[in-house]
Amino acid sequence: MSADEPRWLNDEERESWLALVSMLIRLSAALDTQLQRDAGISHFEYQVLSGLSMSPERTLRMSELALFADGSLSRLSHVIKRLEKRGWVYRTPDPADGRYTLAVLTDAGWEKVVATAPGHVAEVRRLLFDPLTKAQQRQLREIGHRVNSAIGPDEACPNQQS
Amino acid sequence: MSADEPRWLNDEERESWLALVSMLIRLSAALDTQLQRDAGISHFEYQVLSGLSMSPERTLRMSELALFADGSLSRLSHVIKRLEKRGWVYRTPDPADGRYTLAVLTDAGWEKVVATAPGHVAEVRRLLFDPLTKAQQRQLREIGHRVNSAIGPDEACPNQQS
DNA sequence: AGGAGACGCTTGAACCGTCAAGCGACAACA
DNA sequence: TGTTGTCGCTTGACGGTTCAAGCGTCTCCT
Question: Which spans of this chain does the record mark as coiled coil (chains A, B) (predicted)?
Fold first, then answer.
């Protein structure tokens, strides 16, 4: 920690940063834990299923789904293979363009989302919204948008290969 | 997404939530990417090294270090083994109580932190603080504290075994 | 039509984290 | 001083993610 770097963090920023990093890690872990315990799926798997459930025809291209779920295409491919084995999803080539693969939520997959969502939402509410004031919730939304656009469209998403 | 669950999310909350989850994942990934690219270490490894560098004698018990770095003891043990092989850290039993293991930062480890920190701090600043107003930085710190205490001392940290 | 290249996705290997079992060191009690 | 229990940590196997290479499909250009 040598001195006089051009733009060092001051104490306030440092504290914000440590608090945020800790929140980042522990909130992720807490959401994962709840889903794993109550539904036997990871947070990423939940995002995949929930993303499909909100889409028209319960269908999305793999690449769109990867973007929505903030994961790499490779990771999504492995995960969809597992979800397929569990009977919640199936894949089919896009009739409009054979390069695309469509992921489709089955009825069983829909049921899974319906059964899982309330508990998950309750946990999000308990850990994230209940402790905050209305004003903080508004600020948080704005902060999220600003940081997300600072990160850039895809800077952090290792979605493009090599 | 069936209706009238007791405490469903409204549109504003929903948007806050999606923004935050996305920020959560992408910010973690962005910080990891920067460190991996510029220093060849993971964010967790950085937290470990940086935690030691800020401690008296550059020394910390494994369990304290795990708490600081928000990771399990098992994970820390594996990571320290790797950092030991790279010559940045060594372990020694606590002379005061043989059950504890002390992790100590070597000179090479200190150099590594000094070389790595400025770039990392710059990235944190670029992605997290620069896009926010002073007021939002203050809010973020407060939000972090509130959410962290909602998660509880260790609810999300799988630091205790079995 | 045919070839080159771009695109979307998949695959297998290597790596990392988690989980459960187990080890040595210490404390409490007989 | 044993014995029992707890504590802090380590270990190996397992499961998931990443990385790089490769496949099939489509587009563009001649």
Answer: none
